[in-house]
Amino acid sequence: MVELLFGYFAIVIITSALFGVTRKNLVHSLLWILLMFVHLGGLYLLLNAEFLAMVQIIVYAGAILVMFLFVVFLLNLKEETKEPVFIHSWQGRIYGVLILLFFALFGAFTYKKTHTGSFTIELIDKQGHTKTIGTALFNEYLFPFLILGFILLVPLIGVGIVAVRRKANGTS
């Protein structure tokens, strides 16, 4: 039964991610990405990571996707621009597939499982998922966590600047 649910979640995640990337309407694209985030939370539930599942649904499906929707509505896109896109040519598709195939094969042939880490299943069962994630995040990965916060702050500042400029120009 678990394998069947995993297959369902995997198929829906992959197809909704593809639909989210390939749709021309931004709102439809964001709705497909919302479906992907919710199913990713279900996949975390299958892995017995309840905390990560709730964080996935609350933070990503809730907060970040709503922020994307506000950005789309703030930019007030009335019509799509018709510009030539490189990916429409068959050479671009072949180059893209070859690059992805190269990285997939490179990763498959150079993968070595040497680092097991200090967080075992017994430790996670003893401490709990939340405490283990918090310990790892704020002890071992504090600097990347802070850098990620600043990286996520940059688009928010950019949207504010675009909104102020559009209001100053009278184009809002």
TrEMBL record:
Catalytic activity: a quinone + NADH + 5 H(+)(in) = a quinol + NAD(+) + 4 H(+)(out)
GO molecular function: NADH dehydrogenase (ubiquinone) activity; quinone binding
Compartments, record wording: Cell membrane
Xref: Pfam families: Oxidored_q3 (PF00499)
Keywords: Cell membrane, Membrane, NAD, Quinone, Transmembrane, Transmembrane helix
Keyword Cell membrane on entry: yes
Top EC class of this enzyme: translocase
Membrane topology: Multi-pass membrane protein
Keyword Transmembrane helix in record: yes
GO cellular component: plasma membrane
Primary location group: membrane
Enzyme Commission identifier(s): 7.1.1.-
InterPro entries linked to this entry: NADH_UbQ/plastoQ_OxRdtase_su6, Nuo/plastoQ_OxRdtase_6_NuoJ
Transmembrane feature ranges: 6-22, 29-47, 53-74, 94-111, 141-164
Family of this protein: Belongs to the complex I subunit 6 family.
Protein name (record): NADH-quinone oxidoreductase subunit J
